[in-house]
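Hey, quick one: can you model this chain's 3D structure?
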Amino acid sequence: MKKIGIIFLLCALLCGCAAAPTYETLGGDIHQAAISLKEAVVSVPQGAAEMAMEQGTYWVCDDFDLQVQILSGGDLRETVSALSGLDVDSLTVMTSAAGEMVRYEWVWTAMSEAGQMLCRGLVLDDGAYHYCLTAIGPAEQGEKLNSQWNDIFSSFHAI
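Sure thing. Here's the predicted structure for all 159 residues.
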Protein backbone atom coordinates (compact mmCIF):
# COMPACT_ATOMS: atom_id res chain seq x y z
CA MET A 1 0.00 0.00 0.00
CA LYS A 2 2.88 2.36 0.78
CA LYS A 3 4.38 1.72 -2.66
CA ILE A 4 1.14 2.66 -4.40
CA GLY A 5 0.91 5.84 -2.32
CA ILE A 6 4.49 6.81 -3.19
CA ILE A 7 3.90 6.12 -6.88
CA PHE A 8 0.71 8.20 -6.78
CA LEU A 9 2.58 11.11 -5.14
CA LEU A 10 5.40 10.94 -7.69
CA CYS A 11 2.89 10.92 -10.55
CA ALA A 12 1.07 13.89 -9.05
CA LEU A 13 4.33 15.83 -8.75
CA LEU A 14 5.37 15.10 -12.33
CA CYS A 15 2.00 15.97 -13.89
CA GLY A 16 2.76 19.71 -14.00
CA CYS A 17 6.24 19.37 -15.58
CA ALA A 18 5.23 19.57 -19.24
CA ALA A 19 4.23 22.86 -20.85
CA ALA A 20 0.58 22.81 -21.82
CA PRO A 21 -0.12 23.77 -25.44
CA THR A 22 -2.62 26.51 -26.19
CA TYR A 23 -5.75 25.37 -27.99
CA GLU A 24 -8.63 27.20 -29.61
CA THR A 25 -11.91 25.96 -31.03
CA LEU A 26 -12.99 26.60 -34.58
CA GLY A 27 -16.49 25.45 -35.44
CA GLY A 28 -16.50 22.89 -32.64
CA ASP A 29 -13.14 21.38 -33.71
CA ILE A 30 -10.14 21.81 -31.43
CA HIS A 31 -6.95 23.13 -33.07
CA GLN A 32 -3.62 24.11 -31.56
CA ALA A 33 -3.29 27.91 -31.70
CA ALA A 34 -0.51 29.22 -33.93
CA ILE A 35 2.15 31.50 -32.48
CA SER A 36 2.08 34.75 -34.41
CA LEU A 37 5.19 36.09 -36.12
CA LYS A 38 6.79 38.95 -34.25
CA GLU A 39 9.03 41.78 -35.42
CA ALA A 40 12.73 41.57 -34.58
CA VAL A 41 14.09 44.83 -33.16
CA VAL A 42 17.73 45.83 -32.60
CA SER A 43 19.56 49.08 -31.82
CA VAL A 44 21.99 49.64 -34.68
CA PRO A 45 24.89 52.12 -34.46
CA GLN A 46 24.20 55.54 -35.92
CA GLY A 47 25.39 55.87 -39.50
CA ALA A 48 25.05 52.16 -40.32
CA ALA A 49 24.04 51.56 -43.94
CA GLU A 50 20.92 49.37 -44.08
CA MET A 51 20.18 46.92 -46.88
CA ALA A 52 16.99 44.88 -47.08
CA MET A 53 17.83 41.45 -48.44
CA GLU A 54 15.86 38.31 -49.17
CA GLN A 55 17.42 36.67 -46.07
CA GLY A 56 16.57 39.60 -43.77
CA THR A 57 18.05 42.98 -43.01
CA TYR A 58 21.77 43.67 -43.26
CA TRP A 59 23.69 46.64 -41.82
CA VAL A 60 27.21 47.71 -42.73
CA CYS A 61 28.70 49.57 -39.76
CA ASP A 62 32.12 51.25 -39.50
CA ASP A 63 33.96 48.22 -38.07
CA PHE A 64 31.55 45.30 -38.54
CA ASP A 65 28.42 43.97 -40.24
CA LEU A 66 25.10 42.92 -38.66
CA GLN A 67 22.27 40.79 -39.99
CA VAL A 68 18.77 40.08 -38.64
CA GLN A 69 16.80 37.12 -39.97
CA ILE A 70 13.59 35.37 -38.97
CA LEU A 71 13.66 31.63 -39.65
CA SER A 72 11.16 28.87 -39.04
CA GLY A 73 11.51 27.49 -35.54
CA GLY A 74 11.98 23.92 -34.58
CA ASP A 75 15.47 22.53 -35.10
CA LEU A 76 18.02 24.79 -33.39
CA ARG A 77 20.85 22.71 -34.90
CA GLU A 78 19.73 23.67 -38.40
CA THR A 79 19.46 27.34 -37.49
CA VAL A 80 22.91 27.49 -35.85
CA SER A 81 24.41 25.69 -38.83
CA ALA A 82 22.70 28.06 -41.28
CA LEU A 83 23.97 31.12 -39.39
CA SER A 84 27.52 29.99 -38.61
CA GLY A 85 28.31 27.28 -41.14
CA LEU A 86 29.31 25.08 -38.19
CA ASP A 87 27.77 22.14 -36.35
CA VAL A 88 26.33 22.88 -32.90
CA ASP A 89 28.61 20.23 -31.39
CA SER A 90 31.68 22.30 -32.35
CA LEU A 91 30.36 25.41 -30.56
CA THR A 92 29.56 26.39 -26.99
CA VAL A 93 25.97 27.63 -27.14
CA MET A 94 24.85 29.50 -24.04
CA THR A 95 21.17 29.24 -23.14
CA SER A 96 19.11 31.62 -21.03
CA ALA A 97 15.52 32.81 -20.64
CA ALA A 98 14.36 35.94 -22.45
CA GLY A 99 10.84 36.53 -21.17
CA GLU A 100 8.60 33.98 -22.86
CA MET A 101 11.40 32.99 -25.25
CA VAL A 102 14.61 31.00 -24.98
CA ARG A 103 17.83 32.84 -25.87
CA TYR A 104 20.77 30.99 -27.47
CA GLU A 105 24.09 32.76 -28.01
CA TRP A 106 27.55 31.73 -29.25
CA VAL A 107 30.76 33.08 -30.83
CA TRP A 108 33.12 31.64 -33.43
CA THR A 109 35.92 32.66 -35.77
CA ALA A 110 36.11 32.23 -39.52
CA MET A 111 38.62 32.97 -42.25
CA SER A 112 37.76 35.28 -45.12
CA GLU A 113 39.64 37.09 -47.88
CA ALA A 114 40.08 39.96 -45.39
CA GLY A 115 41.69 37.67 -42.79
CA GLN A 116 40.39 36.11 -39.57
CA MET A 117 36.91 37.30 -38.61
CA LEU A 118 35.21 37.28 -35.21
CA CYS A 119 31.55 36.28 -35.35
CA ARG A 120 28.71 36.25 -32.83
CA GLY A 121 25.24 34.75 -33.14
CA LEU A 122 22.03 34.97 -31.16
CA VAL A 123 18.70 33.18 -31.58
CA LEU A 124 15.49 34.02 -29.75
CA ASP A 125 13.17 31.00 -29.92
CA ASP A 126 9.43 31.43 -29.28
CA GLY A 127 8.61 27.84 -30.22
CA ALA A 128 7.48 28.68 -33.76
CA TYR A 129 10.15 31.08 -35.06
CA HIS A 130 13.84 31.76 -34.60
CA TYR A 131 14.65 35.48 -34.44
CA CYS A 132 18.34 35.64 -35.36
CA LEU A 133 21.06 38.26 -35.03
CA THR A 134 24.59 37.74 -36.34
CA ALA A 135 27.61 40.04 -36.32
CA ILE A 136 30.97 39.74 -38.06
CA GLY A 137 34.09 41.88 -37.83
CA PRO A 138 37.90 41.67 -37.95
CA ALA A 139 39.26 39.43 -35.19
CA GLU A 140 42.13 41.83 -34.40
CA GLN A 141 39.50 44.33 -33.19
CA GLY A 142 37.96 41.75 -30.87
CA GLU A 143 38.06 43.81 -27.68
CA LYS A 144 36.48 46.86 -29.33
CA LEU A 145 33.89 44.71 -31.11
CA ASN A 146 32.97 42.90 -27.90
CA SER A 147 32.19 46.21 -26.21
CA GLN A 148 30.02 47.43 -29.10
CA TRP A 149 28.34 44.07 -29.64
CA ASN A 150 27.36 43.69 -25.99
CA ASP A 151 25.12 46.76 -26.29
CA ILE A 152 23.68 45.68 -29.64
CA PHE A 153 23.03 42.09 -28.61
CA SER A 154 21.40 43.13 -25.32
CA SER A 155 19.02 45.40 -27.28
CA PHE A 156 17.82 42.58 -29.56
CA HIS A 157 14.26 41.43 -28.91
CA ALA A 158 11.08 40.42 -30.73
CA ILE A 159 7.77 42.25 -30.30
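One thing worth noting: The radius of gyration is 21 Å.
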